[in-house]
Amino acid sequence: MLQMSTRKRKKGLGWLHNAVERVREFAYAVPVSEPQARPRVGVALGGGFARGIAHLGVLRVLEQEHIPIDYLGGTSAGALLAISYASRHTLHEIEAQARATRFKNFGDWKLSWMGLASNQKLEHYPRQYLGVSTFEELRFPLAIAATDLGTGEPVYFTRGRLGPALRASCAYPGMFVPVELDGRILVDGFLAAPVPVDAVRNMGADVVIAVFLEAASDRKPSSIVDVIGLSFAILQRHADIEWRRKADIIVEPIVNNFLWDDFDKASELIAAGEAAARAALPKIRAALVPKPRQGPPPLTLGRR
Q1: Which of 70, 188, 198, 248 is catalytic?
Q2: Tell me, what's the pLDDT at 241?
Q3: How far is 171 from 78, CA to CA, in rounded Å?
Q4: What is the Cα 71 distance to its own chain's centre?
Q5: DSSP conformation class of 249
Q6: 188 an active-site residue?
Q7: Strand pairing category for 41-45 and 71-75
Q8: 133-170: string of b/e by CB count within 10 Å (b at 16+)?
Q9: How far is CA 256 from the centre of its chain?
C-alpha cells in the first residue's frame, strides 16, 4: 500500500513538473511572426492631354512585372486612361485607340465667354469607345477628380455615370467651358488634385503609386493652349504640392517636351512611361514587401 502511494505521489509530482515546464516554455518563447496579406495597391494618374498616353507605358510595366492594382484614380487625361484600363480592354486595344485619338474625338472649337471649346463629346466617350457607362461596370474601384470652381476643393467621383465625371475632370480652364453638375461649376481636376493620391488612399490603398506628367519646359509656346498650359505648370512647380508627400512612389516620365496635342507621338510617349516605371521598380517592389505581424507579447511569470 505504501509503495503504491509513493508511486502515485511521484507520478503526480512528475506531471506537475512537466506542466510547469510547458508553461515556462510558453511564457518565455519568442513570439512567432504571422504572415501578412500583401499591401493593397492604388495607382493615381495625373493629367497632361496627349502626354497622358505615357500612362500606358507605366501600366504596361506594372502588368508585365505582375505588380497588382487594387484601386485606380485619375485626373483629366489620367481619368480617361484609368477608365480605359478599368474597362477590361487590353493595353494593346487601348494603345490602338490612343494612336487614333485626335482633338475632334473629344472637343469642338466653340469660342465663348467661358472657354475656347466644348468637351461635351467626352460625355459619350466611355460608352462609344470603351463599352462602359458607369463606375459599377469597371473591374477596379475608380475615382475621377475634378475641381469645384467655387470652393477650389477637389471633387471625387466614384459611382454613377462615367461620362459627366470624365467631362468635368477634363474641363481645362481657359480652353474648355466649365461643366455644371449637381449644382456645382466644375473644371479640370489638376487644379485641386494634380495627381489624385488622396482619392485612392481613401478608397483603401496601403501603397500609392503616383504618376505625374510634367508639362513645363524651355520651349517656346506655339498656341494659346500652350501659353495656358505652361502658365499652370509654372504655378504648380512653385506651389506646395501636398500629394507628393502623401504618395509612396512617384513615377515621372520625361514628357515635358511633348506638345498638348502630340497624339501622333504615341510610341515615344509610351516608351517614356515604360522607362520611368522600370526605373521606379526597385522602390515599388520594396514597398510591396509584406511586413510581418508580431504575435502577442510573452507572459511574465516570476521564478523562485
Answers
A1: 188
A2: 75
A3: 13
A4: 6
A5: E
A6: yes
A7: parallel
A8: eebeebebbbbbbbbbbeeeebbbbeeeebbbbbbbbb
A9: 21
Strand order in the sheet with 115-118: 108-112, 115-118, 174-176
Helix (H) or strand (E) holding 181: strand 179-181
d(CA 277, CA 222): 30
Element holding 166 (H helix, E strand) = helix 162-169
Measured between alpha carbons, how far is 210 from 287 in angstroms, rounded to an integer? 13
Run of H or E residues at 200? helix 197-203
Query: What pLDDT sits at residue 297?
Result: 52
39 CB burial (10 A radius; 0-12, 13-18, 19+): middle
User: Angle at CA 127, nearest 5°, toward 122 and 132?
Assistant: 120
Going by C-alpha positions, the residue among 246, 283, 284 that lies closest to residue 68 is 284
Provide the pLDDT for residue 256.
85
Residue 126 one-letter amino acid: P
231 SS3 class: helix
How is residue 256 written as a grid cell? 515635358
Q: Residues in the chain with pLDDT < 50?
A: 1-4, 23, 26-28, 30, 32-33, 294, 298-304
Q: Which of 70, 76, 118, 198 is catalytic?
A: 76
What is the pLDDT at residue 177?
Answer: 86
Q: Alpha carbon 258 to chain centroid distance?
A: 23
Tell me what pLDDT residue 302 has.
42
Q: Rounded distance, CA 11 to CA 40, Å?
A: 55
The neighbouring-strand residues paired with 185 are 180
Return d(Cα 55, Cα 23) in angstroms, integer: 58
Check if 112 is active-site: no
For residue 246, give the H/E element and its range: helix 242-246
Contact indicator for 135, 162 with CB cutoff of 8 Å: yes
